[in-house]
Design a protein that fits this description.
By secondary structure, the protein is mainly alpha-helical. It is built from five helices and three strands; from the N terminus they run E-H-H-E-H-E-H-H.
Length: 167
């Protein structure tokens, strides 16, 4: 399967793009399926429409109160209804217990703070991998290795089992 973690720039490209995002995204997925058609024997049931595609909503930054964000998010939800064998929506803004998913800022010190280590070897995998102002919207490495990976793997497995049972 495929895992698509949506970037917020699609919602910030302007209302017109946000409105058309679902159409553009569907077209991209279909073109990819056409380009991979010579590999169709490796697809589940040899059909592109059965290859699970997880559309992951990543961080709290995605806020449905923002009109353009809502358009993109609703597009993913709509695709999961229109193409239930292929498109699956996974909202990872919150952990399964309802708490906010941990971000780099919560897991590590903020690089702007005076006690942040400047010379670390090997370099830390932390907020320095993104702009400090963006630390609060990126999952922590702990979240990636933990709940995020587990929930993505569980949904991929569930998709495969459902399709196997239907056919």
């Amino acid at each position: 399967g495929f895992v698509w973690v949506q970037g917020e720039s699609d919602a910030h490209a302007g209302a017109t793009y946000a409105e058309r995002h679902s159409q553009y995204f569907s077209s991209m997925v279909d073109r990819l399926g056409e380009r991979l058609s010579d590999l169709q024997t490796q697809f589940l049931h040899s059909q592109w429409k059965h290859v699970p595609w997880l559309n992951v909503l990543a961080t709290r930054w995605w806020d449905e109160a923002l009109a353009d964000h809502a358009k993109v998010i609703d597009g993913y939800r709509r695709l999961s209804q229109e193409r239930p064998r292929q498109m699956h929506f996974l909202d990872l803004r919150l952990a399964e217990n309802g708490a906010a998913m941990e971000t780099n800022e919560e897991h590590f010190h903020n690089p702007a703070w005076p006690d942040y280590p400047q010379d670390v070897s090997p370099p830390l995998t932390d907020g320095r991998t993104c702009e400090p102002a963006m630390m609060h919207i990126h999952w922590s490495s702990c979240a990636y290795r933990g709940e995020v990976s587990r929930r993505i793997a569980a949904l991929l497995l569930e998709c495969g089992l459902k399709l196997a049972q239907k056919n």
